[in-house]
Specification:
3 domains, Rossmann fold, 7-stranded mixed sheet, 21 helices, single chain
């Protein structure tokens, strides 16, 4: 018994053992997902110190050495930012909406702030400088620039990306958001009373609780799977088929509409009919909002909600293999799961979360200019376009010039930047400009794709240089496995003066395999 610890005591012990804050939730996660066995029952969970010690010996202490062995000893582990919790790397407005391929705010802050260390022996920017991000994405650079008393302008060919970015750095009337969101929520609840999907889903959840409790007890089932005492694939399929009888009986009893009649758009294909009805209902309410800023922020809340309600398995959220309309065995959660039949819970959760994050950022932001422009970074006239949106900011750029660039260009043949938000383009009617993407997924990573990519990135930098100060600093974050950036530097009359190779530890919706990226520091030759 002397080796058994409560979850709270285990978190204290683990924190001392690995020299990093380990919360009780972290320990509970290890138990829930079968990483370590649980001792005790009836709500009294205990952890064996030896089990915890064995886990951390294999997963924590050797991680840096294992990654360096795979990726090279030039890996700068300090730039892993491993000391930060997930809640810190997705702080305040950075998590207003999901986005593939974004960098964490700590990375931006490291290169933009005025602090120095043995790796960064000088600061590159000072308060009042203007930063440019020609591949703005979801606006991480703009948000961090605001925190650091820097002005920043972003460019993006995707209208929805620009929308996300500008919403993040917007200013809002919190009382109006709360009041308007509550009106929409109450209207949605009344709308639901006319239908059976809520009653159906509650009954389905009751049935799932009983079934999963009997055949997939947590955390014992997951632990036995990890110990190979259970063939997860065969057992999961068998029990999933068994539960389908219960599921379809409920569908018939409650007369639930599943698949939509049309299959013409993303919204038609990837949402159950009952969910689509609610999406359209809420969107119609949002369109009638008079306060423009409130309308924008609640539209983003709806977009985030819609993304979470796609008819797919939990394991396929990033890949969207095939729409589902029935219950299924979920490898991620180790039990039978279901598609969503209502958006209400996600809408309410994201509304509360969004308001909280806006308030947090409002305490940190500074009185500086931040704007993301929609346009092709290869050809856009930043000053002229900005003059129509914010003449004062445009004049500042004309007079002072831009001090430098911090950006993460798209990678060759990796992400379809428009398609990842196809639901939003369908819902809001933004114009898609897929043909203007640099290094799009559909072109692959072959020789011609790489040549096209080199030209595209070079054209962007050459166009942006006209707005930069002399002695500018350009930082580009890239996983340059094809070795394209030396050629890009040559074509833009720049030189790579430094390379920072960093491990990427928390890759959202991607493999957990060892992975690194390089921050290229470029200056004029």
């Amino acid at each position: 018994m002397e080796d058994l610890m409560t979850i709270k005591d285990a978190s204290i012990w683990a924190s001392k053992y690995i020299g990093k804050n380990v919360t009780p939730s972290n320990i509970s996660y290890l138990i829930q997902y079968g990483r370590i066995p649980k001792n005790g029952s009836n709500g009294n969970a205990f952890v064996n110190r030896h089990d915890l010690e064995k886990y951390y010996q294999s997963h924590h202490e050797t991680k840096e050495s294992r990654w360096k062995e795979q990726l090279g000893n030039d890996l700068n582990w300090n730039l892993s930012f491993s000391e930060y919790k997930e809640s810190e790397t997705t702080k305040h407005v950075h998590r207003l909406h999901s986005y593939k391929g974004k960098f964490i705010p700590q990375l931006v802050e490291y290169f933009l702030d005025q602090n120095t260390d043995k790796f960064k022996n000088k600061s590159f920017f000072k308060a009042g400088d203007i930063i440019l991000d020609p591949f703005c994405g979801s606006g991480t650079t703009l948000v961090q620039a605001s925190e650091l008393k820097l002005h920043s302008v972003g460019l993006d060919v995707s209208a929805f990306n620009a929308f996300i970015s500008n919403v993040k750095i917007g200013k809002y009337d919190i009382n109006d958001i709360e009041k308007t969101a509550n009106i929409i929520t109450q209207s949605l609840k009344k709308f639901q009373k006319e239908k059976e999907n809520v009653s159906f889903e509650n009954k389905l959840l009751d049935e799932l609780k009983v079934f999963n409790g009997k055949f997939f007890p947590s955390p014992d089932f997951k632990y036995k799977v990890r110990q190979k005492e259970i063939n997860e694939k065969l057992y999961g399929k068998q029990k999933s088929d068994e539960f389908l009888n219960i599921y379809y009986n409920l569908i018939g009893s409650y007369k639930i509409s599943l698949k939509q009649k049309k299959n013409d758009s993303f919204l038609d294909k990837w949402f159950l009919q009952v969910v689509r009805d609610e999406i359209d209902f809420v969107f119609n309410h949002i369109k009638s909002i008079k306060n423009t800023e409130t309308k924008k922020i609640l539209a983003l809340v709806l977009s985030r909600t819609v993304r979470s309600c796609r008819a797919t398995t939990h394991a396929d959220l990033a890949t969207l293999k095939e729409p589902i309309s029935s219950t299924y065995y979920c490898k991620k959660h180790g039990k039978i799961c279901k598609p969503l039949f209502s958006i209400l819970s996600w809408w309410q959760r994201y509304t509360v979360d969004t308001i909280k994050r806006i308030i947090q950022f409002d305490k940190l932001r500074t009185d500086t200019f931040q704007k993301c422009l929609v346009g092709d970074s290869r050809t856009i006239d930043i000053v002229h376009k900005l003059d129509k949106k914010n003449p004062e900011f445009s004049e500042l750029i004309k007079n002072n010039k831009i001090a430098g660039i911090f950006s993460s260009p798209p990678y060759v043949g990796l992400i379809n930047y428009h398609e990842q938000h196809a639901y939003a383009y369908d819902l809001f009617g933004f114009e898609r400009r897929d043909e203007l993407e640099i290094g799009p997924l559909y072109k692959g990573q072959g020789l011609e794709a790489r040549k096209s990519y080199i030209k595209g990135i070079s054209d962007v930098l050459n166009n942006c240089k006209q707005f930069l100060k002399q002695n500018y600093d350009v930082f580009l974050v890239a996983n340059d496995k094809h070795g394209l950036y030396p050629r890009i530097a040559e074509l833009t009359n720049m030189q790579i003066v430094n390379e920072y190779k960093r491990p990427v530890l928390n890759r959202v919706e991607k493999t957990r395999a060892a992975y690194a990226e390089i921050i290229f520091h470029l200056k004029e030759k």
